[in-house]
Predict the 3D structure of the following.
Amino acid sequence: MESAIHTEHLTKIYRQRLIAVNDMNLDVPQGCIFGLLGPNGAGKTTTLRLLLGLQRPTAGRAEVFGNLCGPNAVDVRSRIGYLPTNPKLPGNLRPIEYLDLLGKLCRLPGQRRKPRISALLRTVGLLGATDQRIETFSTGMCTRLGIAASLVADPPLLLWDEPTAGLDPSARRFTLDLIRELGKVKTVVVATHILSDIDQICNHIGVMCEGRMIFTGSTRDMKRRLRCDDFRLELDGDAEDIQHLAGDLAGLEGVDARLGAGLAVLVQMTEGRSRAGTLAEVLKLVDATNLSLKAVHSGPNATEDAYLQLLQEHEAHGFRR
Amino acid sequence: MDSAAELTKPGPRIMPYLAVLQHDLMTLRASRLVQLWLGATVVLTLLLIAGNWTQFQDGPLIASLLFPYLVFPWFFVVVVLGVSPVSGSRADVLADGILSRPVSRFAYLLATWSARVILVWGVYLVVMVPAVVVVTLAKRPVPEDTVTIYGSITALGVVGLVLTFLTSLAFLAGTLLRRPLLALVVLVFLWYPVGLILSVFSLEEFSPISLNRAISTQLRQTLRTSEGSTDGGARAEDAQALPERLEHFLDVFSGTPSEPTATKPDFFEGEEFSDFSLLRVTLGYGLPTVMAVILAMLCFYWRDL
């Protein structure tokens, strides 16, 4: 299947000093919701701007639906809907005027533009604010208008840069639901560092660190990269008994155990061991002590752990080099 | 594909250009700078007409009305208008709002340049055309002058061309230097000593002050005389009238009546305007205008946003 986005050795160096994107090879399959993860300054926004032709690559190339990206690649941009982080919009316009302007920029004829604008304003919940100037809008309203703006031409690819930044919980929920719905018919790339968002909506992930793409694959692939499944046992009782229990657990075959923060024991399994079987053995040992078991946590932040592990590995790899 | 077929039609192809043009014109028209400029230019024109009503013939009076556009203060406003479209913080708004859409940078820049030129011409003509009509048609207590329609149109056209050149130069400076204030300072330091620079290369006819001197003569040209000789040379009395006009112009600002000046027939003897040619001036301002726009586009095309 043709990739929605394809980059080869894509590199961007600012003023011969700062490497923003470093030799990036990326393929985003069509029809997926792709989460572009990375800490601040990892190069996520620069990557999106290179795809849009707002910036020129120092080396390498980027293609969208097989077309080369660049400053005058109008055909590429006609197939992209871009939502920047906290979009800066012309404050002197009203929402309908702004969307109408964008509709004209996308060459939509009037008979298609008008109903589309009204439908979009209804979708993002801004119908009640059509007589206000954009300069009076809150951050959340600006983001919602930015979402509508990215959808004006109904493009097959959406590039959304931190779409939930600055949103209240209900607006955030609305945005995530919208991405999930749009992901059924479009390719959506969401750049963010909010891992819970990625966990909820994305089926493919790319992790960037210091300009490099250090992982690409499905969400499942990423979680599998964790060294092993973890259990965290929250206990109540004597600290000495807990330490003793940790020693007993470490004696089990294929199991490693150590004390965690507070009165907790962290259990790690080696690959290939049965998760249920190990848990049964662990619980049997706990039951044999005087300790009371408060809770068992089993990998609630798998994506976060995998992400942090990737970053640590990348850092260690860098030191080894 | 339907959308591809639509893109090849001329209507949809120029739709982004027209959209940006319309948006920029609306934004500029609503700006305080333009509203203040329009108000101030109306007031200054009225003051100049009223102050010189009984002083000058039609030609010198119209030339005195055009003086603010060529030298000061409207030169400054035109430069400010031209300098800002793709510089400073506007670049962010541009990138987020317009240039991330299917619009080429060429179309965008051409539209913003056109909007500024149309606005400058609009303000200039809205004020100057009625003023020229009033001055030429009114019965005034001064000797009759021979200002022609052809002369009026070409003189207004030449000043309009200078304004277009200034807008384009400011446009280029803003694009190159990125900082509007820096571009403004550079242009002011370039524009005012331009007469000196041009005189070094024997191109003084292109300097704004020389142009203003020659405008009275150009106003009296007819199509036939213009075709008959390319040297629409300035008359000596027009050249003599310049310092007087300048003084009257400054008097309008200071509010003090000017004292009558003694005539000095030999004062401009050293000045030569015999080689003043409409074609040369048009090319002299037209070609750099085109060059400035092309350079601005090239510069903007290679720039990261």
Chain A has a mean pLDDT of 86.
